[in-house]
Specification:
By secondary structure, this protein is an alpha+beta fold. The strands form 8 sheets. It has a 9-stranded mixed beta sheet. It has a 5-stranded mixed beta sheet with strand order 26-25-27-28-29, sandwiched between helices. The two termini are 29 Å apart.
Length: 571
Amino acid sequence: MKPCYRDTMDPNIVLGLAKRRGFFFPSFEIYGGMAGMYDYGPLGSAMKNNIESLWRKNYVLHEGLSEIFSPIISPEEVFRASGHLAEFSDFSVQCQKCKQAFRADHLLEEVVDNPDSMSQKELGEAMVSNDIKCPSCKGELSEPVAVNLMFKTTVGPLGGRDGYMRPETAQAMFFNFHLLHRFYREKLPFGIVQLGKGFRNEISPRQGITRLREFNMMEAEVFFDPENKVWPGFAEVADLKLRLLPDGLEEQELSLKDAVSKGIIANEPLAYFMHVTKKILLAAGLDDKRLRFRQHLKTEMAHYAEDCWDCEALTGYGWLELVGVADRGCYDLQSHIDHSDAELTAFIRFPEPIEMEATVIVPNLSALGPLFKGKAGAIATRLGEMPCDGLDATMPIVLDMDGEEVTVPANCFTISQEIKKVSGKRIVPHVIEPSYGLDRIFYTVMDHNYKEDGEYVTLGLPIAIAPIKFGVFPLMTKDGLDDIASEVDKKLRQKGLLTYYDGSGTIGRRYARMDEAGTPFCITVDYESKEDDCVTIRDRDTKDQKRVKMDDLDKVAISLADSSLTFEAIG
């Protein structure tokens, strides 16, 4: 029988497999569970780590970005500056009878196109005109009201400081910009990544791990000179094509360079990181035919975004957003500058100095020298590069000198108008942000790789993503075959390969268990192994089998695990 490759998968089939094989399952189940909370089991934790490793390999190693790790709780001031206190809301309705709350746009998904782009008033009118009732008890629903999705907490006992669980990992990469910019020797462009937990107090979470209250994110912030938005390597990928659904246009397939030249994608870096996104998702095992990039409508654009494209995958839940690739402009850095007075700018040098009238700070070296001694030269240089807007010549200036706060008295400088040769200017960098929802990618990997042949189920995971790389079996658990298999299993683990030893049941049942768990290869020790020192390696997808010398097994297994050797090339 020919295997059935489903275009759309009943989500309950994936959820059942995930729970049965230890990928993921509802949290706190013995206490009735909690909506929007899931645990990753043994296989799920390993596969989640593998997806993160694939992502790091691309962003940190291939693209040269650097990783940071910051607290999940931030003070209220961070989110006042970022706009999340004012803007990070969904519209909720409540049943007047059973008192359950629901997201208004979710209740309209079957009757209205793109309801998440609708205003509060439009949602209310659409619910009335379509006679939307409570899904649980058919009771009357309230008018939509805006609900902020952040979890609030208090840091410190006895009336401590207000804080929030972060709804995204991005903000630390913005409010630490001055330190990260210095790490990159004050040169643009550069990029920072962060992987970790995000928290959103969803109104009515549903659909398994695709909408969670505690979830996993993988985000990058790439900082650019707004007048020079380029990225090394764009020319190398410019002819590659993406499936695009632009705002107001029909779906089309365009090369990166054509999409940029036609103004469909705003700039080269945005297009480049859309390409990187597709490359990573394909490597994780997603089906190219079920992927597309949809441009946000103007009415659904996040408060910080100038442009945004969602990489969506067709799943049993319909088209599901996996990654948002946004041009955030200078919104975040400028907002943190406005709220904190921090110096979150970059100095861009001109190719050649130019003459212009300028308000400048003139350092007084005769005063700086005795006061700051060996640091006087560096302080004078920093003063000369500072913007003068809003400075008072009678007040001291506070500088951040490599993490040390230095106060420069007013007698150490003057502010004046003069014609001078200017070597550059200060700008607020712009940002391209690829933001990946790890849990949604995880679910879609399982959805796209589920295959059936009658009742026989195979999870066709790529070896880079598969939680178990090799199943190891003795043909029989006697006559020393189990001892040999145990030794093989131990040696492979010592080489850094995750294996699973199984001596229970028929060999066919053991293969079936490994196929359902997505294990790419199985190794069997049989009676001939005692005679010829060989084992049998079986390929999950083709069911082909090959004999390999035990002395060569380590090398062969490692090569298969890093995909540098095809199964056909063995022997």
